[in-house]
Amino acid sequence: MDISSFPILSLIIFLPLVGALVIALIPRRNLGAIRGTALLFALATWVASLWLVLGFLPGRNVVASAAGSFQFVQAIDWIPLFGIQYKVGADGLSVALVVLTTTLSWISILASFSPIRERVKEYMISFLILEVGMLGVFLALDLFLFYIFWEVVLVPMYLIIGIWGGANRIYATIKFVLYTLVGSLLMLVAILATAFTFQAATGSWVGAFDLEKLAGAGFDGTFQLFAFAAFALAFAIKVPMFPFHTWLPDAHVEAPTAGSVILAGVLLKLGAYGFIRFAIPLFPHGAHVFAPLLIVLSVIAIIYGAIVALVQPDLKKLIAYSSVSHMGFVTLGIFIFQQQGLQGAILQMVNHGLITGALFLLVGVIYERTHDRTLAKMGGLGAVTPVYSAAFGFFVFASVGLPGLAGFVGEFLVFQGAFAFNPWVGVTITFVMILAAGYLLWMVQRMCFGPVSEFLAGLGHHLTDMRPVEILTLAPLGALTVVLGLYPALVLDLVAGPVKAILAAVDPAVALSIGR
Amino acid sequence: MTWSDLTVIAPFAAAVVVAALVILADIARPGNRHLALGVALAGLVAVGGLTLWAGQAPGTAFGGMYKVDNLTTFLDMVFVAIVAISCLFAPDYLEPRGLPIAEFAAIIVFALAGAMLVAASADLLVLFLGLELMVIPGYLLAGYHKRDALSTEGAVKYFLLGSFSSAIFLFGLAYVWGLTGSTRIADVAARVGEVVAGHATLSPGLAMGLAFLTTGVAFKMAAVPFHYWTPDAYQGSPTPVTGYLSVGPKVGAFAVVLRVFAEALLPLRQEWLIVIFVLAALTMTLGNLVALTQDNVKRMLAYSSIAHTGYMLVGLAAYAAGVIQGLEGLLFYGAAYAFMNLGAFAVIAALQKRPGVSSRLETFAGLGRREPALGILMVLFLLSLTGIPPTAGFFAKAYVILAAVQAGGWLTVLAVIAVLNAAAAAFYYLRVIVYMYMRDPTGEPTPVGHGALLRLGLAITAVMTVILGLFPGLLLASVSSAAQAIGVAIR
Question: Does the N-terminal peptide bond of residue A243 adopt cis geometry, omega within 30 degrees of 0?
């Protein structure tokens, strides 16, 4: 079938929703069918996303508008009175993140088979709706539609943490929702104000929510400041940037394994994606004015996350703070407005999704056996569970940024950009790499090396090595980590177009002239 | 009286006839609740049909005292829907408590007639008549569970403050009439316009009249600081009555507001804009803050309904600033709020089917496991009340916020206050979900069956909550023509 005439993006977005509806019809006792259907639809969505990649590649370098070059654009009038459309489209950036999402989704669903035994039906429905929301965010080209998907993500994650989470789950999940909601509602005001400003200028609501029309519309300088601030707050909370990060460790610690995987793997990327796709192209002047502040906050996040990670007694908390640090690289790379930096940031988004996703899966594996995540109780796993220890070591090295594995290239590009931007920033964040190596390698040491701890020895034969299913969930992530480490061009080539478009949008000569 | 007068007032007259028929049915077959309820529901369908039919030919009747325009038709349809849905989910709650259903149906249809009269009034005296016909049945309904002390207490408070506010409203009306010489809304608007054009300042008498009118209406719609009757009246009333009281008289009060402020006193909009601005900010914020601390869901929804009044006032403020979308947003909000709030109350009523079950948060513990369908519906209504897309509540909030943003200036600040309030409200709405899905039930309550009518009512409210969220365009045309019926003067 010819892909260009097929609404492939809508298929990808709504396939999980169909899955959720099908599951709703299955009797709740039939756990096998519920799990199977969820996995089947997640896999089908994944296959569709791979098909999208194949269809997308030939036309990837065509730049069409200030917002980027979108393919497979599908636009249907939805609320014509306000020019609101159901409009979806994909550029290289969205394609990369869609594939990340669909991959992590089926892996997460597969990884949930064994740990989730209560209310499986509700869990799988929530998970598939969560996938709909995430894919929608990455593909929406209408601000109103984008906002709807953005909020759709919130509810299932709220339920996943709140129902299937740990002891302190209710506090964590309400904190997560309230933080996100404050940011996103202010963004809603900014979205509506943007649309109205466009309507007032053109005299018509047509295209007032259309990203492609709004990007490069050249809004008034003062307006850009306010609007960018509102968007940036929403995205900064989601990333999360320092000092809005405090919801993240709580959410990670309490979330079930698969929830953590998706939270770290995809949800944090929504914020970074929002900056790149919406906040910067829409309000380049605002972006320039706020960039110094955001760069400072990013550097603080990089250092602070690493230092705090050093002293965490809980495995999940440690990885959560390392995420704060790693996402700092992403936002730093974005706001230095420079080619290597932006490329590195995008690559780092994908890499962090793969690697941290895998690390949370590995924490889940050990938690399922020990029902504990306290680092102090671990030790000597290398002798008891060699496969597990090898996998753990592999992903930790990838996270540290070992050359040849995915983590390296992204961070290296951000370093390059940072040095070009300001040597002091470059030196500072390079220094943090030592800290990162410190907390991550120390974690491996405490987990895997040395004599087997009393606690683990007490578990006896319950402490089994990884099962084939668990290996199956990690294998694709491991393979991608190696492939992207050796051949990062796979992603870099895909996002070359969007990177060019965004850098053109924030060209200081154009962006800064608006305010004067 | 001419034939055309009759066709214009047909929907209102039909509502009165239906109420009378319900009483007759109850007299003819005492205790046959199916008959009374059947008459009421069939009658409501007929009233709805007549409303649509009469709405096709807008016109006035009785020498211009009664007016049917697109706004009337829109509001009437919302009222009919509110009353019909209230009748659908009432029996499951009333029957086990031995409360007479025929009386409930008759009283509530009389209230409908009053609300319809308000919506159709072109004269301030007719408006007052409608207002009283609308609220007096409300007092009766609130105290209708005679043996329940809370119900009686709530009803007495509601009655005293309600009559008090009616008197204040009437007093303000007297001032306006004295200074303008007419009670026709169009005449009042014209005279007020002349006064405003003649000398820039407001005459003290008119200002006083305006203040009294505002106070009276603020009581009726439970705007802060005139909201004190609400929590007691809502908590004490039988749950289906509370559901009705939280939406019916509220939308009715907004009908009064539209006829008085948006029509009669439109030339003075710069003056009352400030009042509405302050009322909106106070109402949203205080309603939400107090709702945060409630552990009884009915009382929590009572305070949250105060907050929703505040959101609707944001639309009114935007309209006062010259943005007709404010009016449209307010009307859309009213319709959306009616469905989602009635839905939430229907779930509470279903839970309280067995007498003695409280409406405290603990009642909801483990609901998601006990009754999955009710649980999911409640989640839907709560998310809609919070304003999470894709639900009706989200689009309604977006609509009034859009209007405020369009008005610009200080109203942008009001929009920001509104969204911060929406975020705060998420806390208490989501707390109910926490109880339903994240806590285990305290005891093991025996499951109860739910009546077919209740299921139908839940289905209607749920479907409307989703449809108005996904395809708000379906309602936008009527909302917009309703707003234009009175909004032409401003642009």
Answer: yes
A185 contacts on B by Cβ (under 8 Å):
387, 419-420, 422-423
Containing domain of residue A23, as a range?
3-515
Bigger pLDDT: B181 vs A297: A297
Alpha-carbon Rg of chain B, whole angstroms?
21
Q: How big is chain A, counted in residues?
A: 516
The answer to whether A78 and A85 have CB atoms below 8 angstroms apart is: yes
Of A163, A177, A192, which has the smallest distance from its Cβ to B438's Cβ? A163
Say which amino acid occupies B445.
P
Nearest to B350 by CA among B456, B431, B245: B456
A185–B420 CB contact, under 8 Å: yes
A79: distance to nearest CA of chain B, Å?
Answer: 5
What are the structure tokens assigned to A168, written together? 């302190």
Residues of A in contact with B483 (CB under 8 A): none
Q: In this complex, do B438 and A169 lie within 8 Å of one another by their Cβ atoms? A: yes
Q: What is the interface pTM, i.e. ipTM, of the complex?
A: 0.89
Residue B206, domain extent: 3-490
CA distance A222 to chain B (A): 13
Contacts with B476 from chain A: Cβ below 8 Å: 79, 81
Q: Which of A28, A186, A192 sits opposite B402 (nearest CB)?
A: A192
Number of domains in chain A: 1
Number of domains in chain B: 1
**pLDDT of A230:** 93
Once rounded to an integer, what is the mean pLDDT over residues B280-284?
92
pLDDT in tens, A8-42: 889 999 999 999 999 989 888 888 899 999 999 99
Residue A238, CA distances (Å) to A178, A245, A260, B158 in order: 12, 8, 14, 46
